[in-house]
Every structure is written in structure tokens, then in C-alpha cells.
Amino acid sequence: MKKDKINSLKKGIVFFGAPGSGKGTQSALLSDRFRIPLVSMGQLLRTEVSQKTKLGEKIECFLKKGEYLNTLDVIEVLKTQLNKILDTWVILDGVPRSIEQAEAIEQCASVTFLNIEAVIFLKIPPEKIWERIQNRLSCVQCQKDYCYKVALCKNCGSIKFAKRSDDTEETVFRRLHVFNEKIRNVLDFYQNQKKLYVLQADRPVEEVYLDVLSCVKILVQEKSLF
Question: What does the record give under GO molecular function (predicted)?
Fold first, then answer.
């Protein structure tokens, strides 16, 4: 990856989609290939919960209800994480999830925070979502999700995995309902900016990933990413 001069303004590639759409898998593949830091909002929030911080207690209530954390808290968590990253480019998984979050990030871009360059929307039929999530496990140590069986966490090296507490059928479908209520405005927001790429995600991981690379190649040519 080209080592640009370090700048407080980050450029983001966002993976957006319903629970179980493959955001975590595809964002990790892209991050590994091009060595772009990956910020997983869900992983960050679950870490806060596991560490029993004051914010974590608040987050846990929202997660169990299948609801979104309020925008101010999400932006604060995101800012804290981005301040730890020296690279100019980042990959974002799980944020923004609502038009309020998208607009808040847009407003912050004017004060050297984060500028979204591309949004890759992974579209998947509802019937496929629960099928995938039933098999999902999370690393006990770092909270990284896996939708396939692994013996060792690629992120932290832990060998301990467990079902996520918010991966019950009731909570998953409540989260899906919330997602569907908010999705249209977010997609329109980025479509109007000509930053949106829509990919059909109910296919083998390798096929979806090839399409992701095609989207990024367009970004590479226009933005000189690599």
C-alpha cells in the first residue's frame, strides 16, 4: 500500500448490509489483501461490553434489544479508534448504520475526521440470514465473528469461541427489522453521492470477493489508493 503522508482525515471504504450478509468476512479479506486497517464497529462495541465499561453496560442493553446505539456514542467510539490509526485509508464494517450516523460522519469530514469514499452494500434475501447466523461464533477474547468453523482466531490467536449473546432468533429478526427500516435512506444518501456499489451476497464467498475487488479497482483508478 502506498505510504501517503499521515493525515488526520481518514478515507473510508464502508461495508454495509444486514446482519449475516458477510460484511465481516468480506471486509477482513480486503483488509488482509491490501493491509488497510479494519474498523469493525460491532467488534468494538462487544469489546466494551466484555470489559464491563460504563459505555459497555449501556451498549449491552441496546444489543439485547436488537436496537442501534445512539449516534453520539457511535461517533465517539469511532473517533477514538480512528485516532489510533496512522494510515490514511480505513475499511469500516458496521458503521454508518443509519442516516443519522451517515450525516454525522459527513458533518465531521469538514473538521478532519473521516470522508467516506465508497460504500459496498451486500444484498441478501431474509431467508438466508438466519441460516448463516445460526452457525456464527465469536472469539471470546477479541469478539471477532466467524461464520465458519475455525480452530484459531486470525485476529488474536485465541482458541476459545462462543455464540454471541445477541444471536438469538428473536434478537436477530428484531435487528433485521430495524435494519430494513433504516436502509433506504442510507442507500439513497450514498447513491446520490455516486459512492454506492450493490453486490448480491447470497453466493459463495469467493464470488462475492471478486466483485468487491472490481469495485475497489474503480476506486483505485479514481483515488490512487494503491
Answer: AMP kinase activity; ATP binding
pLDDT score for 165: 67
Q: What are the strands of the beta sheet with 196-200, ordered from one edge? A: 38-40, 89-93, 10-17, 114-123, 196-200
Q: List, as residue ranges, the binding site for AMP.
A: 46, 67-69, 101, 164, 175
With beta carbons less than 8 A apart as the criterion, state whether 45 and 63 touch.
Answer: yes
Binding residues: 20-25, 46, 67-69, 101, 136, 164, 175, 203
pTM: 0.76
Residue 56 one-letter amino acid: G
| Feature table: binding site for ATP | 20-25, 136, 203
Longest dimension (CA), the chain: 47
Give the residue among 112, 116, 109, 104 at the shortest CA–CA distance from 39: 116
Q: Which residues contact 93 (CB under 8 A, 6 or more apart)?
A: 15, 23, 24, 27, 38, 39, 40, 41, 42, 43
Task: Give the model's pLDDT for residue 2.
Answer: 41
d(CA 43, CA 143): 5
Predicted local distance difference test score (pLDDT) of residue 122: 95
Q: So what's the pLDDT on residue 1?
A: 42
CA 44 vs. chain centroid, Å, equals 10
What are the chain's domains? 10-219 (3.40.50.300)
- What pLDDT score was predicted for residue 110? 58
Q: Supply the pLDDT for residue 92.
A: 92
| Spans of the chain below 50 pLDDT | 1-7
How far is residue 160 from each of residues 40, 41, 154, measured CA to CA in Å? 20, 21, 12
